[in-house]
Amino acid sequence: MSLRLSTVILPYLRWHEGGRTAWTRAEDLGFHTAYTYDHLSWRTFRDGPWFGAIPTLTAAAAVTERLRLGTLVTSPNFRHPVTLAKDLISLDDVSGGRVTLGIGAGGTGFDATALGQEPWTPRERADRLAEFVPLLDRLLTEDSVSYEGDFYSAHEARNIPGCVQRPRLPFAVAATGPRGLKLAAQYGQAWVTTGDPKLYENGTPEESLRALGGQAGKLADACAELGRDVNELDRILLTGFTPDRGRPLESLDAFVDFAGRHQELGFTELVVHWPIPESDFAADMKVFERIAMEAPAQLG
């Protein structure tokens, strides 16, 4: 299977001061999908400009024609399925059916406390995601939904006319644990991982490959338990969080080598960060553009 190359554009630039240019350039370079982070703020960017994911993607939809668009990832930390579904149906309509929802349990960053709540434990986040995903699935496929759960409720929530993509826009479920992988197997059209975070500081690329292979194997097991062919799911690696860090973007050859090793594990899509000067995602823009234009053909 050919390997798709996508990018993630962090929403830190004003739209008319570089934001729009990045999204249109991503389409020109031939990226399959351009994603953005769905956070209220994020890490070292917390004290600087940071814009909302859904409005940013809506603006991007208006200035592109072929590029798929998506979140990496949306979480229950500050989202509710009822309002999120309405926004997603609107975004899917504006884009002409080009939206993928990356969705996961979230973490312990700034989003976890921005609404005044105490940060949830990993188990509490998993509990919420287990209710969030099935309810969102219903909201995006049914005209009217009523539901009363432990964490979320909906009362005659109307979502007419539904998504342009049928039966709904695709879910890319970020997961490494058993409960999340089961959700990916049941509801996902794709699975997302960033690798094993324990290996980021002191692990090796070889250890990372073994860990990713183990994750992919657990996804296959989760699919088998549900009677689903794992090959029905795209497998997406969001790069930049493995021990390789930014080295794959140092040259075309380095990237092709990195991508080929992950393609052999069954990954169907690699996502690279749009270069951001003086950050963890700094990269030579000329090299980045060459990778975008030439690497996919070399990977077949």
What key attributes describe this structure?
300 residues; alpha/beta; eight-stranded parallel beta barrel; two-stranded antiparallel sheet; 8 helices; 38% helix
Short structural description:
This protein has 300 residues and is an alpha/beta fold.
List the helices and strands and how they pair.
Elements: E1 4-8, H1 19-28, E2 33-36, H2 53-63, E3 68-74, H3 81-95, E4 99-103, H4 122-141, E5 144-148, E6 153-158, E7 171-174, H5 178-187, E8 190-193, H6 205-225, E9 234-238, H7 252-263, E10 269-273, H8 285-299
Parallel strand pairs: 1-2, 1-10, 2-3, 3-4, 4-7, 7-8, 8-9, 9-10
Antiparallel strand pairs: 5-6
Helix pairs in contact: 2-3, 3-4, 4-5, 5-6, 7-8
Description:
The mean pLDDT is 97. This protein is of the alpha/beta class and 300 residues long. The longest helix is centred in the last third of the chain and has 21 residues, at 205-225. 38% of the residues lie in helices and 17% in strands. It has helices spanning 19-28, 53-63, 81-95, 122-141, 178-187, 205-225, 252-263, 285-299, and strands at 4-8, 33-36, 68-74, 99-103, 144-148, 153-158, 171-174, 190-193, 234-238, 269-273. The protein has 8 helices and 10 strands. Helix 3 links the parallel strand 3 and strand 4.
| Estimated structural class | alpha/beta
The low-confidence runs, each spanning 5 or more residues with pLDDT under 50, are none
The number of helical elements comes to 8
Q: How many strands in all? A: 10
Span from first to last CA? 8 Å
Elements, N to C (H/E): EHEHEHEHEEEHEHEHEH
The 3D shape can be described as globular
**In angstroms, what is the radius of gyration?**
18 Å
Binned, the helix content reads 25-40%
Q: How large a portion of the residues is in β-strands, by DSSP E?
A: 15-25%
Could you give the order of strands across the largest sheet?
A: 1-2-3-4-7-8-9-10
**Major pleated sheet:** 8 strands, parallel, barrel
